[in-house]
Amino acid sequence: MLTWAQTYAPVVYEWFRTGFDTVPNLIPALFDVRQSSAAFEDAVGMGGVPTDQWDAYETGGRVAHVDVDRYYATRFTHEEKAIRFYLKRKDIDDDRMGAVRDALFEVGLSAAVKQQEDAASVFNNAHDDNYLGADGEPLCENNHPVGPDSSTTYSNEGTSALSYASVKAARLAMRQWVDSQNKPLPRNGRLLLLPIELEDAAIEITQADKRPGTADNDANAIRGFQYITWDYLTDANNWYLLDPVYMKRYLRWYNRVPLETRVVEQTSTHVIYEFYMRYSFGWVDPRFVYGNAV
Fold it and tell me: What b/e readout covers 149-158, taking b as 16+ CB neighbours within 10 angstroms?
């Protein structure tokens, strides 16, 4: 026979999940979401390939064996997130389940917000020297090394406010990046990631038929660019131009244990439900974003 705690477990989870699902989830839109069965995941970025090796067979009669230049190794160590909810038997007996439902809704909402805050911290800390990537620099910096064996550096950081001109400049800067073989990288920034305060400006500069802010008939060179506003970006002025293809290659989110619910204690007077999740996140290679710290 089921105990009263077990009987209410599906209802508790449903109310919790209702709150969780209320929060728009941008993680799948921005990150390469993967499952993990280990304590951590290792990833290595890839550098350039010498293109002249393709000519070896024609010129020398042999097929070249190519070793791709390696970038830096990144370890994603999964972190545990847990919270407990105390449900009293008398709350059920006294028909106070409406209050319990509302409380569980808020707990579920907080779990979703926690995930969004963690994911957004990649960008909120993008210019902070206390949050470094595998190359020893923050996500957005003006002196990233091109590779472990190279003295060449590149910048993916600016200080310009969001505008038509600054988006064009950021896109050009991305297209001028080179790999470890000094070959152009195929980066095409076409996605703006913005705080909610910059949404109106994004609409004006990406959807106008003509060049915005002028009476000229020049075509709008960035018309059709996409933008995403994220409630959890904490700086009202900082903005990011992303290559949507390489964003999904280099931003990683690993789910070690998806969100789950369990009963951890039960008596005749109360039950304690525990909500648990375990995940890690970050980036493998910063060459998908140009960030402006305004």
Answer: ebeeebebbb
